[in-house]
Specification:
The chain is mainly alpha-helical. The protein is built from 5 helices and 3 strands, in the order H-E-H-H-E-E-H-H. Helix content is 58%, strand content 6%. Helix 1 packs across helix 3 and helix 2 packs across helix 3.
Length: 128
């Protein structure tokens, strides 16, 4: 199992964003399985011809997204991103529910606002 990253110097996206997106996609697709150890920041930077700070920035963003986890000196690994994403979504939903209740919205109105927001992000179509 190897990390397959291609940084396109001609692309409009910054190198750290290209790196972040590619690792994220490979982790979410299963090409990089949960628990797969990623190269060190310096090692990957050397391999890709990038600055170590560029790789570190991508790793920080991936960790904030729950895609990877750093285990101190043991290294950086692909996390169970589904669990992290579900946990973060549940936390956001709880904050939202508490807020709309304080604002006095009915349950139906609160759900309607969420449906409208999801439709705006994911596109039109039927029920969400």
């Amino acid at each position: 199992m190897t990390l397959n990253i291609n940084i396109d110097a001609e692309a409009s996206g910054a190198p750290y964003e290209q790196l972040r997106a590619q690792i994220s996609e490979q982790a979410r697709s299963g090409a990089l399985p949960v628990g797969h150890r990623l190269p060190t920041v310096r090692g990957l930077a050397e391999r890709l011809g990038l600055a170590a700070n560029t790789v570190a920035k991508a790793y920080r963003a991936l960790e904030a997204d729950g895609v990877i986890e750093t285990r101190g000196r043991n290294g950086t690994f692909v996390a169970a991103a589904g669990d992290a994403a579900a946990r973060e979504a549940a936390e956001a939903a709880a904050v939202y529910a508490a807020r709309v209740r304080r604002l006095g919205l009915s349950r139906e109105a609160a759900v309607g606002v969420v449906e409208d927001a999801v439709r705006a992000v994911y596109g039109g179509g039927g029920e969400v």
